[in-house]
Amino acid sequence: MPTEQKKLATVNCSSDLSDDHLFVRTCKREPAERTPIWLMRQAGRFQPEYRAIREKVSFLELCKTSQLAAEVTVMAVDQLNVDAAIIFADILLPLEPLGVGLEFVKGDGPVINRPITSAADVARLKQFDVITELGYVLQSIKLVVQALNQRVPLIGFAGAPFTLASYMIEGGSSRNFEKTKTFMYTENAAWHSLMEVLSDVTVRYLNAQIAAGAQVVQLFDSWVGCLGPEDYRQFVAPHMKETISGITPGVPVIHFGTGTATLLQSMKDCGGDVIGLDWRVELDQAWAELGDQVAVQGNLDPVVLLSDTEQIRLQTERILRQAKGRPGHIFNLGHGILPSTPVANVKYLVELVKELSTSAKQG
Ligand code: CP3
């Protein structure tokens, strides 16, 4: 068939598909004209404009000022030309209404003022209404949806129960998760009840984000890779199943973690339309292991963006080669953009993925 006819045939058969945006179609593993790309932490300190805003307002104030949070969300899309927006917020925001106290201390990251140390602390956690207590995030979502005017879809997100529990028990960030795991091993009933509370909050929060206009949601289980496979199955999996199965049907769910090479199969069994991969796995091997009933997102090492365009190109080509243009690959980093990343490298990556994946489809 001559090229022009071939193109027409492609266009015609796409009328069988939903009229969703490229990114949403890819989450559903529908064929797409090219590989969509967005980047975790695409709004953040690597942008001079973001740093300028942060000189005037604290991080929590920024999250709570919906107009500003919406501006920061849309600014990243405008500047980087990515295929999806992600609402500017933080996975730890629900910890405040749960009553453990949340602060972001300059240089130290998040601090939980009253960490969980006992079953009694779990029992004391407050029940709360997400619409009242986290209404500012829902309002940011509404403003972003309006401003984007369907240009690109908006991703809503929440922390997964394990990762949230780790902050609540450690009192902040952690290297070895000693307190979290010790609590999990020695306070079995309290652990499961904490995970149930967090699962319930997460489901209600994500569904409220969807009702406000989020078209896809991502669950960040950023630190679950610190667990062995059997501990994952015993202490985490039942709660992840419960969480994911509670999310509004039809809305694609991205199930993300890092350091999860040995957990991928179990994570997939818990649910999610898309599994997030970090750079510690080869994308083709991980996808083969997961099977073709799930889409994948990833998996460039964020540190590659600190190098040069030649290295970025080589590593991007390798990832796209491994994905082979199969329906269901969303290009992303394996974890968030680092604050020291040059903006120009991020822009280069976005254009490169668009260019390489488009020419691969045509070729
Ligand atoms: O652009 C986006 O991706 C949306 C915004 C977003 C933020 N945090 C903004 C943020 C998202 C999706 C998150 C998720 C988040 N928050 C995670 C999961 C993703 C991951 O990185 O694993 C985690 C673990 C957190 C908790 C958190 N928030 C930490 C540990 C820190 C301090 C470390 C750091 O990077 O500063 C934050 C603060 C935070 N969240 C910032 C931003 C832009 C930096 C705040 C600042 O301006 O100083």
Topology:
Layout: H1 3-13, H2 22-27, H3 48-56, H4 59-64, H5 66-80, E1 85-86, H6 95-98, E2 102-105, E3 109-112, H7 119-123, H8 130-133, H9 135-148, E4 154-159, H10 161-170, H11 178-186, H12 188-212, E5 216-221, H13 229-245, E6 253-257, H14 264-270, E7 274-276, H15 283-290, E8 295-300, H16 309-323, E9 329-333, H17 343-362
Parallel strand pairs: 1-4, 4-5, 5-6, 6-7, 7-8, 8-9
Antiparallel strand pairs: 2-3
Helix pairs in contact: 5-9, 10-11, 10-12, 11-12, 12-13, 13-14, 16-17
The structure holds coproporphyrinogen III.
Coproporphyrinogen III is lined by residues 40-45, 54, 59, 86, 88, 90-92, 104, 109-110, 157, 173, 220, 222, 335-336.
Give the structure's gist in a few sentences:
Helices cover 51% and strands 11% of the residues.
Q: What keyword list fits this structure?
A:
binds coproporphyrinogen III; globular; disordered N terminus; two-stranded antiparallel sheet; alpha/beta; TIM Barrel; 363 residues
CATH architecture: Alpha-Beta Barrel
Query: How much β-strand is present in the residues?
Result: 5-15%
Task: Give the number of domains.
Answer: 1
Number of helices: 17
Strand order of the largest sheet: 1-4-5-6-7-8-9
Q: Give the N-terminus to C-terminus distance in angstroms.
A: 13 Å
> Strand count, sense and closure of the main sheet?
7 strands, parallel
Radius of gyration: 20 Å
**CATH class bucket:** Alpha Beta
Helix proportion range = 40-55%
Number of strands: 9
